[in-house]
Amino acid sequence: MSELVPGGNLPLPDGALSLRVPGPFDVSALVTGDGGRVRDDGDFVFYNQPSAPGVRLAGTSLAVDPRALRPGASRVTVVVSPADPGTPLGRLPAPVLTVAGPDGRTAARFAPPPPRQETVLLLAELYRRGAGWKLRALGQGYADGLAGVARDFGVDVAEDSAPGADHNPRTAPHGGTGPHPAPGGGTDPRATPYGGTGPHPAPGGGTDPRATPYGGTGPHPAPSAGAAPWAPAAPGTASVPHPSSPHPSAPPPPSAPPAVPHLPPGDDLSPANSARAAAGAPPVSPDARLAAAARAHAAAMASRGRLGAEGPDGLSVHQRVTAGGYAYLTVGEHLVSGPRTPAEFVEYCLSQERPRRTLLDPAFTEAGLAHAVDRRSGDVYWTALWARPLTADGLARTVAEVVALTNAERAAAGLPPLAGDPLLAAAAQAHSADMAARAFYSHTSPEGGEPWHRAAAAGSARRTIGENIACGQRSAAEVVRGWMDSPGHRANILAPAFTHMGVGFAGGGPAGTYWTQLFGA
Predict the structure, then answer these.
(1) What ranges does the record list as Low complexity composition bias (predicted)?
(2) Listed residue (220, 219, 200, 203) closest to 211, CA to CA
(3) What are the Cα distances from residue 373, in Å, to 248, 342, 377, 477?
(4) Is residue 292 helix, strand or coil?
(5) Which of 135, 202, 204, 292 is the most exposed place for a label (fewest CB within 10 A)?
(6) Are the C-beta atoms of residues 39 and 81 closer than 8 Å to each other?
(7) Count of alpha carbons within 13 Å of 32, Cβ hemisphere only?
(8) What are phi and psi of 150, to 5 degrees?
(9) What is d(CA 461, CA 482) in angstroms, rounded to the nearest whole number?
């Protein structure tokens, strides 16, 4: 595998390629000729138009087969933008591109310098060179949104997508904070959605415990739930609709404010349960705390006139849930604008892959559904919260699954399993709970506590300590897969020196879930 730097390039293997940018992003592609302009709007591949000849978008992955591109195409530019409209990329984990060949083996990886105020990044381009194709790393940022990039490439963008507006009408990400400046410049690899440190000799071991961190950062798996405005663009068009205008219509006269629609109650779960029954999933029961959090968040979105996982009060949808006294083992959400009734809301969810998976997820047992109206525009904003409540048995099963999956990875590498350690487990659980409660994401606590400090405070006498953390993942399988995809965290999991492990999990905070693995020897 080749690690690219901006401007670097390498030949690509022949055949179909898979390009993946995991995390809280929307991925797009522009198919052009040598002049760098699209032939027509059909050359713009994005969430409302997910395919073109030779290019197909699925979530945050692109499948590109250069042999199947339209005649005259010689370049495919990969673009990333935040899933939360208008969010600067600098507030999110740095995007990481991986490219795999037809055999599934990773051919290249590109981690651009962390963006700052840019809202769109031209990440890389595939281009024809002679009889073959090459990949060039770009990392070029734009500050005027996805529509600005589309216009520069010759796409006919809808008039209601003004430059600088929130052009990406998708839900906010589930992920947590992005990279933070490290002392002395650069970025701190411990402040991304996957943080890894270790192994570190404990104090007194003869070396500076901070001198040899693995400190890996890794990709952030895509959230399990997503939402888009109710009405996608018509097939074959490449408009980028404004999130507060899912139903394009002529504007009312300036003197006539939009009529506020009279809507039926929005808390009816029967359409959702009918869809779940048809899919073989158990029904969800209404929960007053989830419903209250859904009402508060829908009202917050309506007050701003935009979708978002965080309201003007700074609270995330997950923080509203836990503030209402609901502790969860797993949670999912839909943040949607457009539908007028619960039945229309469910119809929308069933029409999109990720929202459908969340709606029909058999892991959820309780739910709350609510809507609110933006009285300035008449647009309707929905919040649906799906959850399984936290229980001691449920937490024990989740922790045991993380341990089992971790040991399966070690077994595949020919390493002995890690034994459970109740003291390391107590320290790991306390750190996950602390991150969720105080809304920070780091190996270092606000008071300066490090992993080895927490292990010692829990009573552990182990001399070598390492730690992996993650946020935003919805299952044990998802978090272990993410750690294994990140070199630093994989190194901790497969470190021969470690003999014991403890696992912690907590729900809440901006990211929704916080995971900790604490290793010891």
Answers:
(1) 223-242, 270-290
(2) 200
(3) 17, 14, 8, 38
(4) helix
(5) 204
(6) no
(7) 18
(8) -60, -45
(9) 29
SS3 19: strand
**H or E stretch at 132:** strand 132-142
Residue 342: closest CA among 230, 265, 278, 398:
265
The CA R_g of the chain, rounded to the nearest whole Å, is: 23
Q: In one letter, which amino acid is 208?
A: D
Task: Look up residue 46 and give its amino acid.
Answer: F
pLDDT tier at 289, thresholds 50, 70, 90: very high
Tokens of 237: 């068009």
Residue among 71, 171, 84 at smallest CA distance from 119: 84
Q: Which residue has the tokens 């690219």?
A: 4
pLDDT tens sequence across 182-233: 223 332 333 333 445 554 443 333 322 222 222 222 323 333 322 322 332 2
CB 194 within 8 A of CB 220: yes
Token readout for 98 is 């991986």
To the nearest 10 degrees (0 to 180), the angle between helices 342-351 and 270-278 is: 30
Q: How far apart, in Å, are the Cα atoms of 432 and each of 204, 253, 427?
A: 26, 53, 9
Tokens (6 digits) for 283: 């029904």
